[in-house]
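TOKENISE THE FOLD
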Amino acid sequence: MAITLTTNACERGTYIILATCYDESTPPVAITPLTFTWTLVDEYNKVINSRENVAATPSTSIAIVLTGADLAIDGNQNKTVHLGVEATYNSTYGTGLFLTGSAKFTIEQIMGVPASS
């Protein structure tokens, strides 16, 4: 299930998503994954701005910075987009375990911002 982010992104602005991976312990503990990639798609699962399988440096908190063409809108209405993440990690339950997740958010059209800017 996707997490719905409650803060909208502004068209062609900058939007930073902080991603943290947790293990399966109780309570969950933040971990540094072995690998971490992300993909940005629209509501039809079409990759946006060639942002597919973008590798990020593994850390306990990973900043995914979206800007400019990542947050472009075609047309004259708000746009819902999805950020999918994939990671691998080690735990007491195994080595190279897979972790996946997604976040859904809205890009808000900003009046007065030309589509070509």
